[in-house]
Design goal:
There is one protein chain. The protein is of the alpha/beta class. The chain is about 30% helix and about 30% strand. The protein has a single domain, classed as Rossmann fold. One of its GO terms (molecular function) is methyltransferase activity. InterPro entries: RNA_MeTrfase_RsmD, SAM-dependent_MTases_sf. It comes from Trichlorobacter ammonificans.
Length: about 190
């Protein structure tokens, strides 16, 4: 596991101890971030990395020019790996780490008035949280026209419309599917 590109490109990342965290493969991460970079969604972005694990996705975003990233993770071994990875890559100055359950973190961030242009969502495949997380993040934390990226099992089928976000692309890489949702742009009254 490594940072693919950008200012920290090529640096190795630490994986969390144990089997509770499923890191995104370098192949999937490279494809995902090439899509995001080509679409101009990384430069100066304010990123949310929910279910951050080792932080590999948020660190990749920071390495490629995002302005800031909030990492949310509650698992202690994953948090230890995340902190080590932020320090090793020099991305710690642009990062905020919340040791919290995802749903509580969404509530806290919404109460604080935080808004994001890009959300990277990787809940456990068997958690049943995908729809709830998408709806909560889209409706409470995203800037109008923001992008939400959901990593899930390739057999999972999510609705094309969830809350204020709409599916606009789905890519499959072996057992992994990457779904790209966009939030509605709000119109002036």
């Amino acid at each position: 596991m490594r940072v693919i590109s950008g200012r920290a490109g090529g640096l190795k990342l630490t994986a969390p101890r144990g089997t509770t965290t499923r890191p995104t493969t370098d192949r999937v991460k490279e494809a995902l971030f090439n899509i995001l970079e080509h679409a101009g969604l990384l430069e100066a972005a304010h990123v949310l990395d929910l279910f951050a694990g080792s932080g590999a996705l948020g660190i990749e975003a920071l390495s490629r020019g995002s302005a800031s990233c909030v990492f949310v993770e509650k698992n202690r071994p994953a948090l230890e790996a995340l902190q080590a990875n932020l320090s090793r890559t020099g991305c710690d100055t642009d990062a905020t780490v919340l040791r919290q359950d995802a749903l509580r973190a969404i509530e806290r961030l919404a109460d604080d008035g935080r808004r994001f242009t890009l959300a990277l969502l990787d809940p456990p495949y068997d958690s049943g949280l995908q729809t709830t997380i998408l709806e909560q993040v889209a409706d409470r934390l995203m800037e109008p026209g923001g992008t939400l990226v959901m990593e899930t099992d390739s057999r999972s089928q999510l609705p094309e419309r969830i809350g204020s976000c709409t599916l606009h692309d789905r890519r499959v890489y072996g057992d992994t599917a990457i779904l790209f949702f966009t939030t509605e742009a709000r119109h002036a009254p």
